[in-house]
Specification:
The protein is of the alpha+beta class. Helix content is 29%, strand content 30%. The protein is globular.
Length: 182
């Protein structure tokens, strides 16, 4: 597969734009059971990922998609939330940011992986038109793994988009088999 060149923009390593945000879960962040509201955590994750996207792109970036958000463990009032976000891969005008959330017990310091998500951002100009973004230059084996996996997730998103387009165009017909096969 040939990717379009990224307009000869200088590449950047993920570490140049990585973010860690820390929050204390207070009662106003929680539901009636004392657990952090999923929507509150999603907002914090989106903000962390947006900071990464804008740092990497050097431009205003907007959230285009949130993929595979997984709530793995409950986070309770009094827990400390650590949100780690870094760019996985850049495409022509978009980029994928991975977000990993840990809950910390402030008494014993135990950290547990509590949530993860992948967010796609698009860099835009003042008129809302997409702009090119710099490529990601992975430096570590982990960054290379995330870089490769981001392409797979992108292909899945594009495949799903095409499948949905076909379904909308032909709502009363069976979907052609080539769109159902991965």
């Amino acid at each position: 597969m040939n990717e379009e060149p990224l307009h000869k923009l200088a590449g950047k390593p993920p570490s140049a734009s990585a973010v860690e945000m820390v929050h204390l879960v207070l009662p106003n962040h929680a539901n009636q059971l004392g657990n952090l509201l999923g929507g509150q955590l999603m907002q914090w994750m989106d903000i962390a990922a947006a900071l990464v996207a804008m740092r990497h792109a050097g431009k205003v970036c907007v959230t285009a998609a949130v993929d595979s958000i997984s709530f793995l463990e409950p986070i309770r009032v009094g827990h400390i939330v650590h949100i780690l976000a870094s760019v996985n891969r850049a495409f022509r005008t978009s980029l994928e940011v991975g977000v990993k959330v840990f809950r910390e017990d402030p008494i014993n310091g135990t950290r547990t992986h509590a949530a993860s998500a992948y967010l796609t951002f698009v860099a835009i100009d003042q008129y809302g038109k997409p702009l090119p973004v710099p490529p990601v230059e992975p430096q570590t084996a982990e960054e290379w793994r995330r870089w490769r996996e981001a392409e797979l997730r992108r292909q899945q998103r594009l495949h799903q988009r095409e499948l949905l387009r076909q379904l909308r165009q032909h709502p009363s017909e069976d979907v052609p088999q080539q769109f159902l096969q991965q």
